[in-house]
Every structure is written in C-alpha cells, then in structure tokens.
Amino acid sequence: MKKTRNTRQRGVILDILRETHDHPTAEAIYREARRVLPNISLGTVYRNLNFLRDHGTVREIRPSEGGSSRFDAADTPHAHFHCIHCSALLDIPLPNALEGLRFEGEERISAVSLVDLHVIGSCSGCEGASTH
Ligand SMILES: [Zn+2]
Ligand SMILES: [Zn+2]
User: Fold this and answer.
1) Kind of pairing, strands 58-61 and 70-73?
2) Rounded to the nearest whole angstrom, what is the distance from the C-alpha of residue 53 to the centroid of ligand 1?
3) pTM score, two decimals?
4) d(CA 6, CA 48)
5) CA-based R_g, the chain, Å
6) pLDDT tens for each residue of the chain, 132 residues long
7) What is the DSSP string of 53-103?
8) How far away, in angstroms, is 68 Cα from ligand 2 center?
C-alpha cells in the first residue's frame, strides 16, 4: 500500500518535470503536485526529488549565486544557461566538443555519466537592461 502511494507520488512529480521547461524549484513542484495529490507534503516532494536525482532520472541544478535548487527531467544531455539578471534557466545544447569527453591519463576517473555545464551570463531579453 505504502509502496503504491510512493510510486504514484513519484510519477506525478516526474510528469510535472516532463511537462515544463522552466526548471521549477521544489516549492513550485510542490504547488503543482498538490493539484493532483492534495495531501502531499513538501518533505515528500523533496524526498522524491532526491530519490529521482540519485537514480539519474532528474537533474538538480544549483544556481551559482545561491538560492533554491532547480530541477528538470534528465531525458537528453544538455547544458544550462543561467541569466544573472532575471534568473531564467534555459536548456542549451551541449557543445559538440563535450560529447564523448575523454580524460586520457586521468586514472582517478573510470567513466563519465554526465557533464554538468552551467553557462552564466545575460539572456537576450536582459541584454539592454544591463548596460548603464
Ligand atoms: Zn534575463
Ligand atoms: Zn535543463
């Protein structure tokens, strides 16, 4: 019984992440999840996000300037662009040079499963606003 409930909660959280591209915080996911599961708690959302992250199903993106972690469904490899002005977090393609990255002679690394590239700057919408 408990197991079924956990699986359902996890499925709802994953659906929310797959339907959005704006990388919600755990709090935003919680607000969405409550529409479907009115009794779900914020702690449950965090627990499920941690579980999904540890299994590679979900990526956690920690903003470099602090603040809440953002999440997305890790379906395809991609990098993130983070606007320092409006906090937009955009999916951008992983540069070709980074795909199939090798660390020749680096014996401490046995296999690479993810390259977590975080590009920081101004988005085109904020570019004009940032000049003074
Ligand atoms: Zn911006
Ligand atoms: Zn993303």
Assistant:
1) antiparallel
2) 27
3) 0.78
4) 8
5) 17
6) 556 777 899 999 999 999 988 899 999 999 999 999 999 999 999 999 999 999 989 999 987 677 889 999 977 888 999 898 888 889 998 888 777 777 888 899 888 877 888 899 999 999 866 554
7) HHTTSEEEE--TT-S--EEEE-SS--EEEEETTT--EEEEPPPGGGTT---
8) 15
Ligand 1 centroid to residue 118 C-alpha, Å: 15
Q: How far apart are CA 82 and CA 40, in angstroms?
A: 30
Query: Residue written as tokens 């996911």?
Result: 29
Span from the CA of 7 to the centroid of ligand 2 (angstroms): 23
Q: What angle do CA 23, 28, 32 make, to 5 degrees?
A: 110
Quote the ligand 2 centre to 106 CA distance (angstroms).
28
